[in-house]
From TrEMBL:
The keyword GTP-binding does not apply. Belongs to the HicA mRNA interferase family. It holds the Pfam family HicA_toxin. This is HicA toxin of toxin-antitoxin. The keyword RNA-binding applies. SUPFAM superfamilies: YcfA/nrd intein domain. Keywords: Endonuclease, Hydrolase, Nuclease, RNA-binding, Stress response, Toxin-antitoxin system. It comes from the Bacteria. One of its GO terms (molecular function) is endonuclease activity.
Amino acid sequence: MRRGHFIRELAESGCYLKRHGKRHDIYAYPVNGKQAPVPRHPEIKETLCQLIRKRLGVCKSANLETQS
């Protein structure tokens, strides 16, 4: 999955960029206060996207599933 698409998906779920790291950006989900690092690679594997979603406690948007 393209990184930009994944970031857009996180933003639509309510996550926001908390801070920049050296090689990762830290995203937070204000509903439960959880945080997860997101790498700055142009392409992120789907398994890693699932792990980040799980760490943040967000589900994949049904809205985005129909668009893909």
